[in-house]
Please model this.
Amino acid sequence: MLYLILSVSRNAHILKERNARLIASGYSVASAYSKEEAMEKLLEGDFDLILICPSLGKDGCQLAKTARRHRPSIPIVSVAPNPGPMQDCGAQLAGSSPDEIVAAVHEVLGNEHSRFAARRFANAVPRFTRPTTKTGPQFSQPGPGSNLKAG
Model:
């Protein structure tokens, strides 16, 4: 299954390097360079995970809180070598090396696979289908007082 990750950082070089590693690991990645851009993309896209860089500072925690309000079930991973405010905001922590980041993303999405698969399947199945027969849609016969004649 192809997962879509929203990767957020103010540092373009680090973001490019991190995203290349995630893509090489089989993920699809969209970039955002600020809290505001990340929120715009989050509201427009169907992301499976948000990856937040410490370069956002306090905006990282605000982004995590805002994302939780709009999409409570989306996992959030923060690039942080040790616990801090991002963990208090409900983010899973990843180390700072590319291998640690990919491992944390894989662990979070691997654990969430069943839930995401169920959600995507539920959203893909039409909920309201029109009953049909082999010859086409069923129509009811005109009732008493109707101007239509049964034919």
About this structure: Residues 125-132 have pLDDT under 50 and may be disordered.
